[in-house]
Amino acid sequence: MSGLPETILQFGTGGFLRAFVDLFVHHANERGDAIGRIVAMQSTGNARARLLNERNGLYHVVIRGIDNGQVIDRVEECASISRALVASTQWDEVLAFARSPDLKYIISNTTEAGYAPESLFPEKLQAVLFARWQSGQQPVTLMPCELIEDNADKLQELVITLSQHRDDPPEFIDWVSNQCVWLCSLVDRIVPGQPSEHPLHHNDPLLLMAEPYALWALQVKPRAHPWFDHPAIVRMQDVKPYFLRKIRILNGAHSALVSHDGLARFTTVLDAMIDVPTAEWLQRLLFEEIVPVLEGRCDDPAGFATRTLERFRNPFLHHKLADIAVNHAMKKTIRLVPTISEYRAKFGREPLLLSACCAS
After folding, report:
1. What gap in Å lies between CA 233 and CA 215, rounded to an integer?
2. Model pTM greater than 0.85?
3. Residue 104: pLDDT band by 50, 70, 90 thresholds?
4. Percent of the chain with pLDDT over 90
């Protein structure tokens, strides 16, 4: 695998990408698809990039949880990252890789704040694309993984707006708009971080844990560079139904738990699911008020809700409610409020459980 070319520039070195995209790329390379290796750029700090370089990009992912009633507990090695760069001190090297004839793909996973006009992320991406265009190399395929609806379309618009404000050449803006391929996506996997009790913890400072479930709904467009097949990847022209299903069911259930109990009674999602009255309340919320609104609008919302409850009962997963509660008011307006309005319109009555959540 070390002889494969570097074909992917990744904005971010965090746990989610390393236990999701990077692990899938490793799987593809291992089975002979030869998709290439990843250059990962750390935007804030340098500690993770230093560790990745010291270990030649090698780390492990512990896959733990319940999958269709079966307990899964296995370790997977990942070696898809060839090197890591620090944006603050190695920007020239980032731009040098942007000009590489081998580069085909750009991956990213920032927070919602990364899509704000004043964010540095669109500026960095614009600079990378401009350097590539100036070098005369082939256009790239961009696959942003942020949990934002129409993520690729919105990111492309941010880059184009930046270029217009800077009076970049019209030819560059046309290249970004019509030659590069921007694929919207929906990603879904819970990656809680390092399992401190695992035997590998002391030998691998980059060790991660992830649940068995993984889904990458990826848009299909002409002219995109060929990507690999994977059991977690589904492809379609419009990923919005998958976004709708995840935001309203899984993320909605998370925010509903925070609203229902706050942080006083339970520390983790698993703690809440062990409590029988809370688990029964959440099941009612999902199947009586959320799933009925989504029926006919996305694939098997009831089945996804059932799988969500199984994922919440993962005995290895200590997903802190305090982490879910960050930006809680904003999350409620995205995850819960639209379902309330749509329930009223569809059934002509109040969804009592959801309304109580949003009033709390």
Report:
1. 6
2. yes
3. very high
4. 86
Distance CA 29, CA 35 (A): 6
- Please give the angle made by the CA atoms of 230, 108 and 101, to the nearest 5 degrees: 85
